[in-house]
Description:
Blueprint lengths: L11 E7 L4 E7 L7 H12 L1 H9 L8 E7 L5 H13 L1 H10 L6 E7 L7 E9 L11 E7 L5 H25 L1 H11 L5 E10 L6 E7 L4 E9 L10 H16 L8 E5 L6 H11 L3 E4 L12 H14 L5 E5 L14 H15 L6 E5 L7 H4 L6 E5 L4 H15 L2 E2 L4 H8 L5 H15 L2 E2 L1 H8 L6 H17 L3 E5 L3 H4 L1
Parallel strand pairs: 3-7, 4-6, 6-7, 10-13, 10-14, 11-12, 12-13, 14-17, 15-16
Antiparallel strand pairs: 1-2, 2-5, 4-5, 8-9, 9-11
Helix pairs in contact: 1-3, 2-4, 3-4, 5-6, 9-10, 12-13, 12-14, 13-15, 14-15
Amino acid sequence: MGAGGKLREAAEVRVLWSNLYKVRTIFAAYHDVSESYKTYRFLSILAKYSSDIYELMLDPHERNSGLFLRIKYNKKINPGILAHVNLLAAMDIISELVDNISQTGEFTSVLLATYRSPNPEDLVSCSLTFSRGAAPGTRLKPAGIVIVNGYIPDSQKAVKVSRSLVKEAQKALEETVSIYKRDYLEVVRNVGLLGAKPIAFIAVQSRAVNVEEIRAVVSDGNEYREIKIPVRNPAWSVNDLPPKIVEEIKLILIDPFKNGLSFAAKGTFITGPPGVGKSVMAEAIANALGLRVVELKPFTYRSMWYGATEKMLNAILNQVYKRKKEVAIVIDDAEFLSSRKYTIHEAHLSELSTILYHLQRVDRPFTILTANNPDLIDPALLRPGRVDVAIVVGYPDKEMRRKAAVRNIERYKVRLSSSNVVDYIVKTSSWYSLAELDALIRLAASKGGGLIGVDEVEWARKRIVVSPSERRNIQEYLKWWSTKIQGIVITYIPTEQEIE
C-alpha cells in the first residue's frame, strides 16, 4: 500500500536489460511518460556529477554524506518529463554506475525516484537498477537518488526529506511489482529492497522564462530574427520624485490604475531637458503601478528589409500584450517617433503607424514615453486615448536638490567634513540638473578622497559649466508648451525664486 494506505496504479512497468553495462532495471511510472529535449538537458547535468555519486557509493567512509544539487530550470517540468528522465537515467548513467561498482567485487543496486513535489504522495516514477550477476536470494542494499521538482531550502532539509522519499519509492515499487507477479516479483526478491540510504538529492526549482524576458520571432524569405528584450524590476520609487508632484501623480495616474478602474489612464508622456530625471520618473511610476519594465528601443526591431521592421515591432508588442498586467512599456528618448511632417521615408511612416495602432488598442499595456524635445514627437501619439497624461519637468528647485544631494551622498557612502556641506551644495547648484548635481558630488568626493567639504564642492563647481540665462529660456519654453498640449498635464516647473 502507498502513502495514506492508497494502492498506486502504475501507468507503465518495464524490465529493462543492458548488454553494455550487464545490468537489469525495473522501471515503474505512475504518469504517462513524455519525451522532451528537457530530458536530455537533465541527463547532461546528471552525467556531470555522476563521478561524485560514484565516489560516494564506492567509499564506505563517504556513505554518511551525500550530494545535494539545486537546479534552476527555465520552464515548468511536467510529470511525464520527470518520468522520462528517470527512464533514460536508469538505462544510461545509473546503469554505468552500478556496472562500475560491481566490477570492484561488490554487487550493488541503485534506486532512482522522481517526484513532482517534496510530498511522498507525489511520486512520478521509480526504478531499481542492479547487477545481472547477483545470485538468487542475494540481499543487496540499494543506494538512493531522488529528483524532486520543488523548492528545498537547504541541504539539511534535503537529507530529512530524501530519506522519507526513498522509503516511499521502495514501498511503491514493491507494491507495483507484486501486481505483476509473473515476470517481475522474482527479480525483486533476488535483489531485496532493504532501506536505501540517499546518496544524491536533486531539487529542481522551476522558473518561467517569460518572467525574465520578452521573446519575439519573425521569419520571412530574407531573414530570421529572434529578439529578446529583458524584463526588469524598476530601480526607482515615487519617493525619488519631486515631492510637489507626487500626490498629483498618485491621484491622476497611480490610484485609478491600481484600483482597476475602467477610466484609468493607460499611458503617460514625460518631457523636460536632459538630466532632470525623466527616466527615473518613468521607472518610479511603473514601480508604483506594480509593473515591471520592458524598454523598447528602435535598434532592437528595425531592419534593412522592406516590411520587416513593422513585422518585428508587431511581434514584440503582441508578446508584451500577453503580459500587460505585469509589465509597462517604456520608450525612452522617443524623439525617433518624430512628427510625420518631418518624415521623408515611408519606412518611418509605417513604423509610426504601427505604434499609433497599438497605442489605440483598448487592451494595451501601460506605456510611458520620455523626450527632451516634445515638439519633435508626433502630436497623434500624445492625444488623449493613446497617451492620456503629459508630465512636464523643469530644473529642480532647492527642495528637490537637497533631497537628491542627501540621497547621492548616502548612495556613494561619502563623508562630510561639516554639517553645512549639504546647505552649500544646494546653494551653489542653482539651475543644475539632477544629473549634474550627481556629477558635482562625485567630482567633489574624488577631490577629497571620499571626504567632501566646502572647498571640494567649490573646486568641483568650477568644472561644471551651467548657463542660467539659457536655462531660464528653457524653463519659459516648457511653461509655454504645457499650455498648448491637448489632454491632462502635470507640471513641475519651479519658479526662478524656488530654484535660486
